[in-house]
Amino acid sequence: MGDANTVLSPEEARHLLRRTGFGVSKRDLERILDEGETRGQAVDRLLAAKAQTFRPNGRDFETAHGKWIKYLLKARSPLQAKLGLFWHDHFATGISKVEDINLMADEIRLLHQNAAGNLKQFVKEMNRNPAMMEFLDTVRNHKEIPNENYARELQELFTLGVYDSAGNPNYSQEDIVQIARAFTGWDYDKEAFLRDDDHDFMADFPERGPKVIFKSTGGFGPGGRPFTVNGEGTSEIDTVVDIIFEHTDSDGKNTVARRTTRRLLEYFAHPDPSLAVIDALVAESNFAVDWELTPLLRAMLTNDAFYESGAPAPFGGATKKSVKWPIDYVIGTMRMLGMKFKGRSLYVDGGSFRSVLDQLGNMGQILLDPPSVFGWDWETSWISSSTLLARYGFARDVMAARGRGSSSFRADRVLDLSLTIPDDIVDAVTGVLGVTDQFTPAERAVLLAYLTDNGAHASIDLDDYDIRNTKLHGLFALVMQSPAYQMH
Q1: Under 8 Å between Cβ of 159 and 214
Q2: What is the distance in angstroms between the CA of the first residue and the CA of the last residue of the chain?
Q3: Is a pLDDT exceeding 70 seen at residue 317?
Q4: 23-56 pLDDT, tens per residue?
Q5: What's the pTM?
Q6: What are the C-alpha distances in Å from 2 to residues 13, 17, 43, 318?
Q7: CA triplet 414, 418, 423: central angle to 5 degrees?
Q8: Domain ranges of the chain
């Protein structure tokens, strides 16, 4: 058992770096271990890293996608970059419907600016985000026939969730109908604005009744809560958010706080976090009162529950591990190997010579274009016969990139080629890839058997070009294709 004052072990340090960034760099790991950092000290440093202004614009989608890839490869604050990906999934919008790369770029900048800020203010800003207004049809929400899309997803996906932890509904169809009224008449030019002549004012539609929500859920009582207490018009959409953030579930706990904490734990730690841990983190961080994400993240990343899935054996523990997102798999690999993509199309300089856009598409994740408002399906949904082959193909291509410069794989950049003992070489390769402690003895034995031709060679000469470009490169590929490397 540990807390924020617990000194990080090598295994815990690797786990922290894997989950809050893209792989484990030798420099970052040594900094934690050499300075004897505690969980709290390391997490505070990660959270304090200066946020970068990031806006993936360009003349077309491919250019913008490439800018995001380059940003992730060089990000000086990996945790902020990782949070940007989380919120891109949470507040999912896609170029396929928005059809304006500048609107998408503005939204991605907004996600990064608010990534560790105040959640309530974040949601209010998303209400007025032009890309979101296009994606969920706020601009097509007119007073004559209100469009319910954004009102539904505001509750279902962005804040409350459909059901609480006891399986009870968090809102009703009537709540969707009423909240849709608040968003009638909104449009944008450079910024969002309200067209008063297209807004649903109660005086114009007396048959629709008062603007009241949550008569049957939320702990507000049968009278519900009116969202016109600050007047009708522009103030309504902020008032709606204020009321949503007061919503309590059937246990009397704040619904938004519980759901957001659960989602962050599922992203950074492991599937199916316990309700006891969720409630403890909400209480410790005062999240249900202040809505500040940074204290919540600190409480989470210093809690034992975060480190549970970092156990050495990938499948032996009671706590499930998470399947790496494709973007995590690709960017983490390139960062740990010190490689870059080549050319304007950002292709892997070996094997199939596919672009990173094609590689990620084959793995099931294209940034700036999630499959739906629900974002991507996580965990085992990332893995199928085709997407797993795509991951294997990426590992093959990376190991086949043997040209010159930073787009090639150079073992001497990441490994001491004077090593000769097979055990040491296996340790070094798994160390470079940040998974030294993630292989079971049986799995490690497979790596050794490959490297030594089933024990035929007690010593390996890495200075030999053929050995280095067959056995050593093959060992790296084998680790990258292993189950342990697909998970964290």
Answers
A1: no
A2: 20
A3: no
A4: 999 999 999 999 999 999 999 999 998 877 899 9
A5: 0.96
A6: 14, 18, 14, 18
A7: 85
A8: 10-48+253-310, 326-486
